[in-house]
Specification:
Blueprint (H helix, E strand, L loop, with lengths): L14 E7 L6 E13 L2 H5 L9 H15 L4 H15 L3 E11 L1 E3 L6 E4 L4 E9 L2 E15 L24 E11 L6 H18 L5 H15 L3 E10 L2 E3 L13 E4 L5 E8 L7 H4 L1
Antiparallel strand pairs: 1-2, 1-11, 2-3, 4-5, 5-7, 6-7, 7-8, 8-9, 9-12, 10-11
Helix pairs in contact: 2-3, 4-5
The structure holds uric acid.
């Protein structure tokens, strides 16, 4: 009985690339999830462990970032073609390349040229508690993903023996807002109130120069209560969706805050409540 190697391929899955184009005040972003899968003369690596024909998947990932810096990202199709042709043309052992690109759409938050909200994502939520004589209504949303390409820093924090994080004077700030806000009364214009709170959350995220996500969180909550007299409390949960500027120096390229790895985990998780000092207690509705 003979045993042979059948079809095979290998590559780097899910390289999360964010490309920021900073020409002028109106920044552009491209947010992609890129998969690379290559095939060719891969018999030896499987049968004998000889890696001579293998372009490491780590290199494939670096190539995604480097070509994004060099050529920019126009369309998903164009970037896919660029990568696929690059791998086949540059490596004699690579005969076939399959590149998949998912592109996530962002809309502008009109307050600035550098603020964006992920299209069509959020879920609206409501919770109601009622017993004789007491009713509480909490409205909310989750998965409202927002991003500022500038106007955010993080400096001046504790430095202990385990700190390696470099101070950032100009970073991308992105988060997926989960917010729940409590109404004073049980009769409201729910749709209108929801639309206004959503607007204020977006506009405050966009318009606040951020020294930390904590500061942005408080500014958003405070502004909602200032603008919406029908509300008495808001609770916010905001993961820090880290965007790390990719070091392209090993490839002889600079990276003036244009090419980012959008990391999914671990992430900072920032949570806070903002409330009026006369807000009646209502723990039951939050349980
Ligand atoms: O806005 C931030 N707040 C933090 O507490 C924190 N910690 C960290 O590593 N990065 C950040 N960013």
């Amino acid at each position: 009985m003979g045993i042979v190697l059948g079809p095979n391929r290998y590559g780097k899955a899910e390289t999360r690339l964010v490309r920021v184009d900073r020409d002028g005040d109106a920044h552009q972003i491209k947010d992609l999830n890129v998969g690379v899968s290559l095939a060719g003369d891969m018999t030896d690596v499987h049968l004998t462990g000889d890696n001579a024909a293998v372009l490491p998947t780590d290199t494939q990932k670096n190539t995604v970032f480097a070509l994004a810096r060099k050529h920019g990202v126009d369309t998903a199709e164009g970037f896919g073609l660029l990568l696929a042709r690059h791998f086949v043309a540059s490596q004699p052992t690579i005969r076939r390349a399959c590149v998949t690109v998912e592109e996530y759409a962002w809309d502008r938050v009109p307050v600035t040229g550098h603020s964006f909200v992920r299209r069509g994502q959020e879920v609206r939520t409501a919770r109601v508690f009622h017993e004789e004589g007491r009713t509480h209504v909490v409205s909310g949303l989750r998965d409202l993903t927002v991003l500022n390409t500038t106007g955010s820093e993080f400096r001046g924090y504790i430095q202990d023996e385990f700190t390696t994080l470099p101070e950032a004077g100009d970073r991308v700030l992105a988060t997926e807002v989960r917010a729940e806000w409590r109404h004073r009364d049980a009769d409201g214009y729910w749709d209108a109130s929801y639309a206004e709170v959503r607007r204020v959350l977006l506009e405050t995220f966009a318009g606040t120069y951020s020294r930390s996500l904590q500061q942005t969180l408080y500014a958003m909550g405070r502004r909602v209560l200032e603008e919406r007299p029908e509300l008495c409390e808001i609770r916010l949960v905001m993961p820090n969706k880290h965007h790390f500027a990719v070091d392209l120096e090993p490839f002889g390229m600079d990276n003036p805050n244009e090419v980012f790895l959008a990391a999914d985990r671990p992430y900072g998780l920032i949570e806070g409540t903002v409330l009026r000092d006369d807000a009646p207690a209502a723990e039951e509705v939050w349980r």
